Amino acid sequence: MAEYRAGKAGINAEAQARIHSKYNNDIAVEALEWVKLVTGENIPTAGDADSLYEVLKDGTLLCKLVNKFQDGIVKKINQSTMAFKCMENINAFLEAAVKLGVPAQETFQTIDLWEKQNLYSVVICLQSLGRKASNYGLPAFGPKEAEKNVRDFSEEQLKAGQNVISLQYGTNKGQQSGISFGNRRQM
């Protein structure tokens, strides 16, 4: 686990500090309360990184969570505390989350949770899964998902837009601040 590893140094330490600075306790509390509500498990909902890690590290709760979305999406939940069995649980959760509609860029790597390297991405993944919850009849969590806003333009409107000269091409209206460009400086 993470406590057996040597500490990072130099630029790696700076990068890790930047990752840890993104972590937000309030959002983590909301995520844990949502997980508690959906799964019905009695878990502590303190939002600090250590508490989040202790609750989620073996992956069993994460597997139970996605099984509430779709029964049997994770077929076997390992109850063992062996490292590879726990990482299998986390990986099974991640695969199920992608099947449930979580974009791949909003998931995390197994090592991010198992070795406490990036708990911020774990919370982001839970938020993304929480946005999909309403599609499965469960209470939603996280920022509301954007809806499609399709716009249909007629041919006349599209042709009218071709006649507009963009300000990127320049204009002679307004302030003439560059009028003396190229002249010698008057002393």
UniProtKB/TrEMBL annotation:
Give one Pfam family.
Answer: CH
PROSITE patterns to which the protein is assigned, alphabetical: CH
Can you give the residue ranges of the Calponin-homology (CH) domain? 25-134
Q: Sorted alphabetically, which SMART domains does this protein's record hold? A: CH
Which biological process annotations from GO are given for this protein? actin filament organization
**Gene Ontology terms: cellular component:** actin cytoskeleton
| InterPro entries named among the record's database cross-references | Calponin-like (IPR050606), Calponin_repeat (IPR000557), CH_dom (IPR001715), CH_dom_sf (IPR036872), SM22_calponin (IPR003096)
MF terms in GO: actin filament binding
The UniProt similarity line reads: Belongs to the calponin family.
Q: What is this protein called?
A: Calponin-homology (CH) domain-containing protein
Organism annotation: Leptidea sinapis
